[in-house]
Amino acid sequence: PCPVETSGTRAKFTLSNSVTEDWSAAIICNNGNVLSLSVQSPANARIGRYFLTMESQDSSIDLGEFILLFNPWCPGDSVFMTDERKLKEYVLTQDGIIYQGTVEYITSTPWNFGQFEGGILDVCLLLLDTNPKFFKNSDKDCSRRNDPVYITRVVSAMVNCNDDKGVLYGKWDGEYDGGISPLHWTGSVQILRNWMTAGCLPVRYGQCWVFAAVACTVLRCLGIPTRVITNYYSAHDTNSNLIIERYIDEKGMSVNKSKDSIWNFHCWVESWMTRSDLKPDYDGWQVVDPTPQEKSEGVYCCGPAPVKAIKEGEVALKYDVPFVFAEVNADVVFWIKHPNGKQEKAVYPSQVGKSISTKSIGSDTREDVTHHYKFRDGSPEEREVFLKADHQHKLTQKPQTDLDLTIKVSDGMNNGCDFDVFAVITNRTSVEHFCRLMFCARTVSYNGVIGNECGMKDLLNVTIPANQEKRIPLRVLYSKYGDSLTQDNLIKLMALLFEYQTKDLLLAVRDIYIDNPKIKIKILGEPAQNRKLAAEITLHNPLSVPLTDCLFTVEGAGLTDGQQIQQAVGPVDPGQEAKAKVYFTPRQSGLRKLVVDFDSNKLRNVKGYRNVIISPAPK
Hints:
The chain has 619 residues and is α+β, with helices and mostly antiparallel strands. Strand 4 and strand 5 form a beta hairpin.
């Protein structure tokens, strides 16, 4: 756009002896033909690319250009953060961990954010200049680029491509022809470069953790402290009634499909900022969700929503607090449709918003931040929040039953293995009960879409003695789940118990993660900056069939020159190892993360990583 002083995109200032807190410049060295200047920008300057010109009465000299970013080290900046350890983690660190799996078996997926790799800053600025608001009114758009609230909404919208020329095309049906499976990505760099190289055509394909990770890269690159969050049992409430209604048959298959859903996990980002548009109480971490789920002010974006407002049930505050509040607080109701057409409500202990997780500062351990979003279950504060948010269903007393139904699992739920799971029925009364138990296992995607059956029991006469517990096993066979397991490696267990005398209908649901073999990474030689290094990578084939089309993909910020290294491997027989040796030259010293993906016809998108300390090049 044409820079305008009134919009904050143009500034004129004179040379002086010292800089001030506004746009200003001072001479710091005058050495003959060389003049060195110090230029100061105000804390609320618009971010972006600037051209610097020095003018005199009769001439004008172009001094070059510079890029101005948010500065979280500056006390006057709206993204100011005081803790140096947090700044290192949430702005400077170029790799991280994203949590997946299930709430009972949380898995760690390494990710290369790479926000300082070559060309990424140019991509991030292009992203801002490609957003529809810029095309509609470039002057107004650029004038608002000193506001992290505005920038995060733009980035949230532009990371998906649902209503603009955004970065990623989302797909959840398991068919990824014409693109790359979301589970194959190991970092943001290739995605952002591919988008720019293709002339801002969307990169295929992304799912929630990919959207969140790319947004994290862009926002860190622009100077906004940001971290990736995972919410387990995440509700998608399409009609804003805070109730997720699920309709299934006696074998666990979905019927009467509802737009509402429960995702096994869902990822978004939190960004740190002051909220000058709200009361001071709501500064700090804000939820920003780039996954296209529902529209906000007519655009597929979400946030920034103050985490504190979500916890306190302040659903009237901007932006999109009701939607995120539902993601962590909605109640779930299961309706069972019987073969005769009758629908019956099951007694089900709803679990939404569990083990909300992010990577810890300075280590690869998990930090649980659930208490940032929710008060303790059953506490007076929780009840007060539900009253404030008019969450009447949560306030309703849940029915009491004579029996309890849970699902327990065994160790060794590894890909390629058979294993047992158990429906556990507890009789809390002094009389015996007679029941029917339907216990089934089905493959499932992480967003809750049910797949094929891989285990089933229907027991018509189950006796539960007084004050006792009965465990009923279900054998899950690899021959049943192997070919229908989705790339998410998840199986949903459902146990439905009908008590003949009381007519109580109890439901227990549990998602289990089928564990892949671990990737072993061995660094050969002494890791040093600008010195060629080798990594030996191995993976054991635990399956009873050979692996074909095997491919290792390796990348790491500061390690692989911002590129992915790929190496194909021949067929791997059962019980044998896939092996590869890759070479790379680290360009940056310090702690780095080498991220590895293994893909084949039967084992898909297995992830591993190795932390490597690179010593500085000798001076």
